[in-house]
């Protein structure tokens, strides 16, 4: 018995079920049922009310054919009548899943809390919920559902396939039926672009064709039918290792089944699969040349004629290693290993740095708006008093408030991701977090305008002009970044947290500079302090210019070269008429989406 947090992944198919156990160290093992990795999904209801599953159900089918259900996976709303008794297909599926769980517990013990179920990509919410209910009746913990093509694509990455972000591939899943899906690899995972399914193009159709070819008289619907089907299933599997096998028939002499007969029966079905693959690629608005490859999985995919048929249709098909276990293995790895290109994901940010990126712009914004409200310059008489305000300081306060909110955008995104159970990738959560942060920044800036209007006693229009207009470019850029993140078109190097983190050194330097400038403009000018007050203003201008350059340039030598002339200019501009211009200089550089600390 192995120790550790084991993961159980189950690929429940309409004919066969496969499952694997995986451990955090990357090792895995397939579950074996009567020595085989595939458990037949068929069940048989015995007279005493018990449910017989797997190989035992097939062995008993010729004896009690009216109690045998070869394909229990039915539409969620459908009911079955077995031996004059209404049966819920949910109970039949749960019986097979319970069999798998018991086999897994024999190997890993009873403490399996992480279960993944593979489902077709074309299933909607109703059938997915139906599958969850089946797992619950089987006594399994709440499972994570993984789309079959996504699981296969994840397995391909884990086994060394070089698939860059933005590449396309197709997964041709050919078991009892056929489903072809076209996927695109995005920064946060795989996106299914198109899925087409054909229940008549798969192993079941090939079995029917073989039965017609090898039997003189149709086997009918009784026990003879299931005996012939069981013999053909065994013969088909044996052909993978032998060029010809002898297939016994219940009523008549044994027949020889060889690869030529199998290809003859399979050829029409495989042509439909090739046509289905072409249609799926066209539905994704792509051509075969746009794809990295077409990867075939499933029991029927092992037929050598399938690759030739795809080639004749202009498609290069590749058989995945262990095609019957690929989806289960990929589902077991889902969320357990990092299969995303490290250059496109968020780098871990130290908590202290993340807190500083949020707190410093926030406190700087509060300090600036507080000084703005407490230090207006009143001029004129009591009847005609006029307030001279540093509008540049108010604009800086609004921009820094937006910066603080956007710096918290990735924190909001991670919170949303942890609290949601939707199967969407992290890109949609990042986009939602950025939009929520931008909306919060707009709300704070609007609040600054309303409070300023009430405190000073002036109409709110002017305050809104100096709080909302300066942040408009920043909000627009944030909206574009949210769209890019949500659609997973492209992720920035180092991740969104690095892009949204405004340089804290720039914020601190520019805020200190504006505070000193406003102090120099409003302080009481006693003769013996005039020199020092004016000097404080010039120093504030220098800091404002340095902070502007720090936000735009990251190289120290370039900062030194560029900050010298700009700092001299901003220091010379310190005055009441130029206060708005000084604020606009800083606000202009804050609109640039530059990150880093």
SS-derived structural category: alpha+beta
Ends: how far apart?
49 Å
Shape: elongated
How much strand content do the residues show?
15-25%
Question: What are its keywords?
Answer:
elongated; single chain; alpha+beta; 5-stranded mixed sheet; 15% strand; 597 residues; 19 helices
Structure description:
This protein is of the alpha+beta class. The protein is built from 19 helices and 20 strands. The protein has helices spanning 54-60, 89-108, 125-137, 148-158, 203-214, 223-238, 259-283, 304-312, 326-333, 351-374, 391-407, 409-419, 426-456, 460-487, 496-500, 504-522, 530-552, 556-572, 579-590, and strands at residues 7-12, 16-22, 28-30, 39-40, 43-45, 51-53, 68-69, 80-82, 85-87, 114-119, 144-147, 168-174, 178-186, 189-198, 244-247, 255-258, 291-297, 317-319, 377-379, 386-388. The strands form six sheets. Strands 1, 2, 3, 4, 10 and 11 form a six-stranded mixed beta sheet that branches. The chain has a five-stranded mixed beta sheet with strand order 14-13-12-17-18, with helices on both faces. The chain has a three-stranded antiparallel beta sheet with strand order 6-5-7. β17 (291-297), α8 and β18 (317-319) form a beta-alpha-beta unit. α16 runs antiparallel to α17 and α17 packs antiparallel against α18 (556-572). It starts with 6 loop residues before the first strand and ends in a 7-residue tail after the last helix.
């Amino acid at each position: 018995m192995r120790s550790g947090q084991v993961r159980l992944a189950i690929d429940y198919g309409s004919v066969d079920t496969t499952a694997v156990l995986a451990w955090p160290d990357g090792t895995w093992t397939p579950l074996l049922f009567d020595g085989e990795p595939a458990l037949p999904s068929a069940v048989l209801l015995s007279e005493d009310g018990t449910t017989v599953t797997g190989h035992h159900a097939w062995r008993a089918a010729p004896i009690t054919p009216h109690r045998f259900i070869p394909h229990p996976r039915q539409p969620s709303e459908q009911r079955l009548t077995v031996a004059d008794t209404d049966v819920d297909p949910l109970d039949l599926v749960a019986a097979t899943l319970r069999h798998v769980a018991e086999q897994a517990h024999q190997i890993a013990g009873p403490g399996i809390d992480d279960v993944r179920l593979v489902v077709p990509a074309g299933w909607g919410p109703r059938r997915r919920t139906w599958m969850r209910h089946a797992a619950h009746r089987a006594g399994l913990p709440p499972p994570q559902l993984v789309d079959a093509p996504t699981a296969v694509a994840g397995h391909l990455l884990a086994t060394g396939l070089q698939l860059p972000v933005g590449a396309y591939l197709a997964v041709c899943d050919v078991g009892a039926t056929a489903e072809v899906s076209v996927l695109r690899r995005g920064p946060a995972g795989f996106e299914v672009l198109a899925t087409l399914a054909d229940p008549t193009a798969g192993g079941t159709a090939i079995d029917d064709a073989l039965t017609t070819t090898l039997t003189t008289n149709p086997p009918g619907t009784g026990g003879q039918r299931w005996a012939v089907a069981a013999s053909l299933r065994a013969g088909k599997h044996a052909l993978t290792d032998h060029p010809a096998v002898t297939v016994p028939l219940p009523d008549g002499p044994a027949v020889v089944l060889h690869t030529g007969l199998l290809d003859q029966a399979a050829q029409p079905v495989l042509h439909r699969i090739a046509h289905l693959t072409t249609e799926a690629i066209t539905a994704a608005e792509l051509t075969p040349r746009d794809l990295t490859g077409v990867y075939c999985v499933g029991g029927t995919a092992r037929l050598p004629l399938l690759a030739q048929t795809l080639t004749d249709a202009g498609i290069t098909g590749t058989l995945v290693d262990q095609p019957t276990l690929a989806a289960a293995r990929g589902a077991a790895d889902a969320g357990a290993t990092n299969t995303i290109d490290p250059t496109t994901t968020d780098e871990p940010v130290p908590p202290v740095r993340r807190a500083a990126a949020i707190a410093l712009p926030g406190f700087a914004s509060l300090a600036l708006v507080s000084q703005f409200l407490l230090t207006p310059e009143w001029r004129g008489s009591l009847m005609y008093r006029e307030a001279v305000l540093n509008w540049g300081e108010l604009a800086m306060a609004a921009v820094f408030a937006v910066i603080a909110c956007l710096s918290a955008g990735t924190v909001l995104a991670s919170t949303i991701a942890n609290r949601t159970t939707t199967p969407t990738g992290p890109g949609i959560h990042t986009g939602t977090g950025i939009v929520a942060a931008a909306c919060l920044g707009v709300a704070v800036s609007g609040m600054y305008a309303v409070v300023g209007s009430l405190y000073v006693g002036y109409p709110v229009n002017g305050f809104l002009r100096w709080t909302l207009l300066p942040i408009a470019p920043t909000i627009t850029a944030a909206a574009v970044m949210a769209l890019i993140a949500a659609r997973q078109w492209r992720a920035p190097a180092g991740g969104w947290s690095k892009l949204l983190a405004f340089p804290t050194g720039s914020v601190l330097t520019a805020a200190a500079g504006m505070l000193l400038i406003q102090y120099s403009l409003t302080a009481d000018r006693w003769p013996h302090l005039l020199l020092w007050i004016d000097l404080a203003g010039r120093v504030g201008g220098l800091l404002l210019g340095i902070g502007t350059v720090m936000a735009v340039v990251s190289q120290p030598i370039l900062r030194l070269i560029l900050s010298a002339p700009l700092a001299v200019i901003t220091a010379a501009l310190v005055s009441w008429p130029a206060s708005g211009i000084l604020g606009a200089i800083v606000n202009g550089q804050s609109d640039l989406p530059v990150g880093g600390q």
